[in-house]
Design brief:
about 45 residues, alpha+beta, two-stranded parallel sheet, 1 helix, 2 strands
């Protein structure tokens, strides 16, 4: 079991490639990741 398991993160970035890169890396480390393209959509989790 990875130490990050159960830790939830919300990533917000207006650059889709950066968002995807970070998301994949963090998922690989065991984090639960939600993404949003900007602050206005961050309450939705994944737009």
């Amino acid at each position: 079991m990875k130490a990050a398991q159960g830790v939830r993160l919300l990533l917000v970035d207006d650059e889709p490639h950066i968002l995807q890169f970070l998301e994949l890396g963090l998922l690989n480390e065991g984090f639960e990741v939600r993404t949003a393209p900007d602050g206005d959509h961050s309450h939705l989790g994944r737009c």
